[in-house]
Design a protein that fits this description.
8-stranded mixed β-sheet; 233 residues; 12 strands; single chain; alpha+beta; 2 domains
Amino acid sequence: MSKKIKSNSRLRKRRGVTDVISTMLLMAVTVTGASTLTFFMNDAFVSGNLSSVNTLESSSLNVLLLAYDTRDSSSLLTLTDVDNENTVNSFLCASTCSSSTNRIPDNGGTEFIVLQLQNNGIDPIYLENVILNGVNHEWDPGTSGIQLDASADDLVGPDRSYPSDGMYSILPVGSSPIIQNENIQISNGQIVNVLVKLGSDDSDIQINKGIHVLLNTGSVQSVEFLIESGNAQ
């Protein structure tokens, strides 16, 4: 065998070994990256520690979560008199406080969650349901066209100055006084606050735990977010 043939044979062997090593390194990097991503995603869903409120934003449905407020505090998301100042409990009170039906948190009633949403699409959307940790909350028709006032208990109806336990209302942003929306439509480009009052079907939500939010806008796929209780962004 000539020197040239032997040299070509060695070169082919070296190339073969190099290809095997490259493939093994690529597989190792891929597995490591996938494992790391899985760890962080699982941790986010368990603890609710997300870097931004729109991490699970469904851009294909053109619904943006701009802000939220789930604190045990006053003036949630700068809404005057929308307060969660229940000093007895160190959690978002729901089932525990449901015996005081439709009372405000200051008087022992269930507490509030505020979501600020924007319809970023070209068509109106219709917010049919807000689902928190698997519990469905429907729009309260008693709030239609009624001025928001959560400074005192509203125990008689049918008009509702804030949503009943286990329901929600839609509030325009930037208007004063705040007149709750007459229906569930959110126009294209519109920014609204969604005021959810927890109900008897909701479990009490411990502070710093994740809240899984699903928005049913009439599409096949619900819009999904994860927010943190006791926090505001």
